[in-house]
Amino acid sequence: MTGFDILPLGVSLLIGIAAFGSCIGIGIVGSKFLEGTARQPELVDTLQTKFFLIAGVTDGAFIIATGIGLWFATSNPFRG
């Protein structure tokens, strides 16, 4: 190998940025859920359903990014 391999850096950035964004997103959604529950306690069931749906979608994006990063790490499709 004659060049510098930046694949580990790319994979770590892909997984790290996705994890950071997922944690921030779930934190914001959780705080808004608690705020909405405190304002209108009778809507807890509806808000809880929507909270878990959004948390699942947010975690799903992180898991997909992790899967793509691990795929690149094990079999690099960009290497000639």
CATH top level? Mainly Alpha
Write down the overall geometry: elongated
Radius of gyration: 18 Å
Mean pLDDT: 88
Give the % helix: over 70%
> Termini separation (Å)?
12 Å
Class derived from helix and strand content: mainly alpha
Biggest pleated-sheet summary? none
Stretches with pLDDT under 50, minimum 5 residues? none
Beta content: under 5%
Enumerate how many helices there are, as a single number: 2
Task: Let me know the CATH homologous superfamily.
Answer: F1F0 ATP synthase subunit C
Number of strands: 0
Would you mind describing this structure in some detail?
This protein is mostly helical. It has one domain (13-73): F1F0 ATP synthase subunit C (F1FO ATP Synthase), CATH 1.20.20.10. It has two helices and no strands. It has helices at residues 7-39, 44-74. Helix 1 runs antiparallel to helix 2 (44-74). The longest helix has 33 residues, at 7-39.
Brief overview:
This protein has 80 residues and is mainly alpha-helical.
What descriptive keywords fit this protein?
elongated, 80 residues, F1FO ATP Synthase, mainly alpha
Helices and strands in order:
Elements: H1 7-39, H2 44-74
